Amino acid sequence: MTEVAAMELPRSGGRRGETILRLLRRPAGAIAALIVVLIVVGVLAAPVLAPHSPTEFDYERLFAGPSWDHPFGTDELGRDLLSRVLHGGRTSLWIAALATLISMVSGAVWGFVAAFRSGWVGEMMMRAVDVTLGMPVILIGLVLVAAFGSSILSLVLILGFLFAPATARLARSAILSELESDYYLAATSVGAPPWRIIFGELLPNTVPVLLARASIVAAAAIFVEASLSFLGLGVQPPAASWGTLLQIGYASLYSSYWYSIFPGVVIVVTVLALNTLGNSLQYALDPSRR
Amino acid sequence: MATYVLRRAVTSVGLLVLSSMLIFVVLRLIPGDPTVLKLGGSGTDVDPRAFEALRHELGLDRSLAYQYVHWIDGILHWDFGLSYFSQYPVTTLITDRAGATFQLALVSLLLGLLIAVPAATLGAVWRNRVFDSLLSGGTALGMATPSFVTGIVLIVIFGVKLDLLPTQGYVPFGEDPVESVKTVLLPAVTLAVAIAAPIVLILRSSLDDVASAPYIRTAQGKGLLRRRIVLGHLLPNATIPTLTMVGVIVGDLLGGTVIVEYVFARPGLGSLMVDAVYQRDYEVLQALVLLAAAAFIVTSFIVDLLYGVLDPRLRVRGQEA
Description:
The structure holds 2 protein chains of 2 kinds.
Chain A: H1 16-25, H2 27-44, H3 46-49, H4 81-116, H5 120-134, H6 137-148, H7 152-179, H8 182-189, H9 194-230, H10 242-251, H11 258-285
Chain B: H1 2-28, H2 34-38, H3 48-57, H4 64-76, H5 90-125, H6 130-144, H7 147-161, H8 177-211, H9 214-221, H10 226-243, H11 246-263, H12 269-278, H13 282-310, H14 312-320
Helix pairs in contact in B: 1-13, 5-8, 5-11, 6-8, 7-8, 7-11, 8-10, 8-11, 11-12, 11-13, 12-13, 13-14
C-alpha cells in the first residue's frame, strides 16, 4: 500500500526557512500544501461552512442528485451530503491525526533506543520491526479490530500501532546518520552531557525528517481507516467518517451513485495531497538535490 | 548453495512457527469469550452449565499450550478445526472459497504486471517528457486511491451506466469459462490498478539505477539498437532488485483481495475473513491469518532462492556469513 514509497533517508540540515522555500518552489509541493490546508480548515470550520445541519432530515428529498442547494446530493434520510462529508471529515481527520501522533512518538522512541543500544537489544528491536513490517497492514488491522473492537479509541490505537514500525526504522537510520556527523563528534569531544546532545542537537536535527514522514503516515492512516470503515469494521453509525459514508453509499449504488462518489473523491484528494506533501518535504530536505 | 538453501529454509520454518504462536496468542488475549457470543448472550444471561459444556466441547477449558499443540496437530493433518459460528469444518470453508481468491489474485497479478512493466520501461526510456510526468502523476494517484473507490467507479461505469459486465459473484472457470472471465474482469482490473502503482514505483527507480551503469553506456557506445539495450540489458538487470519487493506485492495482493472481494461480493477467502471478523469466529480467522502468513513466508523463501540463482554474488556472501 502507501508504505511502499521507498523512504530514502534525507540528511537534515539547513535553516527551516530555506526548506520551506524549497518546498514551495516545487509546484506539486506547494499545491499539495495548499490543498491540505484547505481541507483541514474546511473540516474544522464544518459547523460554519456546512450549508445544512448534517442531521437535518428532509423526507421530501431522499437520494437526491447534486443540485445548487445540495451540491453533493442527499442521503437515505434526505440529509445534505456535503454537510455530512464536512462533518465526517472531522472524524476521519481526528482519528488520523491522533494515530499519526501515537505512531510518530512511539516509533521515534523505539527507533532512537534501538539506535543507541547497538548490541543485541537493538538488533532484536529491529528484528521485531521487520517481522511486523512484513504482513499487509489491512490484515493486521482486521485481526486487531476483531480483538479490540472498533470504537474510535481502539481505532486510533490500532492505527497508531500499525504505522509505528516503519517510523521506528526511519527514526533509527536518521539518528545513526546523525551519530556519524562532525557536530556530534564535536559535541561529545567537548564533553557535552548526553541529554544536551540528544535534546539539543540530535532531536532537532531529525525532526524535519520525521515531519515529512508524519505527512505520509497521516495519509496511510486515513486510507486504512477508510478501508476498515468501508468494510463496516471501522467507525460505526451514527458516527460517520468518510469511509462510513462511502459504505452506506455503496449499499445504495444502483439507486444513487452520487452518494459514494463524493466521499470517495474527498478521500483520494486528501490522501494524494498528504502523500505529495510528504514526498516533497523529503525532497526539499535532501541536501543532495540542492 | 546447499547451505544457503538450508539456512533460508530453517529461518522460514522458524518464522512460520513464530507467527502461528503470535496469531494464536493474540486471538486468545481478546476480552470476551466467543462461546458467550455463540450462546447468544451478553455474558450475564448465559446458563453457566451450557457455557461450561460448550467450552469443554470446544476444548477452551484446556491450557493454552494444550490448545495450541492441538491446533497445530490438526493443521498437520489438514484439519483447521470447526467454525465457532457455522459448525462447518474450517478446512471445507477455505477450500470452497480458495478458487475465487486464487483466480482473482492470478488475473490481477498478470494484469498489474501488464500495466506496470511497459509503463515503467517507457518512462525510463522517454526521459523528461510529458509521458514521464503523466506516469508519476498516475502512480501517485494509484497509490492514493483505495481499491474500493476504484471498484465503485468501475461498478458505476460498467454496471450501473453501461450495464456491460456483472458487478458481483463468482463463476468457476470449469463451469462456464465465458461467465467466469466476465465476473472476474472488473474485480481484477480494480486490484491490478492497486498493485500496478507500487510496481511502477519500484521498477522505475531500479531502471534509473541500471540506466546509469557503465555497461549500458558501453552498449550504447557499441551502437547497439536501443530496443536491444532495453530488452536485453536494462530490463533483466532492473528486475533483480525489484524481486526483493515481491513480498510487498504479495502483501498488497493479499490485503487487496479482502477489499475487492467485499466490493464485488465475491465468495472468496477475503470476504470469508471479513465475515469471520464480524462474527468473532476466531477459529476461521486464525486459520486465514496463518495461511496469509504462510503464503507470505513461502514467497519470500522462493524469492530468496531465485535471487541467489540470478545473482551469483549473493550466493557467495550467503556462504561467508
